[in-house]
Amino acid sequence: MSEREDKQFENLLYYLQQNRGFDFTGYKRPSLMRRVAKRMQFVNVDSFVDYLDYLEVHPEEFSQLFNTILINVTSFFRDPVAWGYLGEEIIPRLLQEKAPADPIRVWSAGCASGEEAYTAAMVLAEALGVEAFRRRVKVYATDVDEEALNIARQASYNGKELQGVDGELRSRYFEPLNGRHIFRADLRRSVIFGRHDLVQDAPISKLDLLISRNTIMYFNSEAQARILARFHFALNENGYLFLGRAELLLTHSNLFAPLDLKSRIFSKVPHVNMRDRLLAMAQIGNHEMNNTHVRKERLNELALDASTVAKIVVDVNGNVAHIDQKARLFFSLNPKDIGRPLQDLEVSYRPVELRSLMEQAYSERRAITLTNVERRFQNGEVQYLDVVVTPLYDEANNPLGVAISFPDVTPYHRLQEDLQHSREEVQTTNEELQSSNEELETTNEELQSSNEELETTNEELQSTNEELETMNEELQSTNEELQTVNVELRTRTDELNHVNAFLQSVVGSLTSGAVVLNQNLNVLVWNHKAEDLWGLREEEVKGQSFLNLDIGLPVERLRPIIRSCLSGEVDHREILLDATNRRGKAIKCRVACSPLMTHNKQRQGAILLMEEDEKSD
Question: pTM (2 decimals)?
Answer without folding.
Answer: 0.43
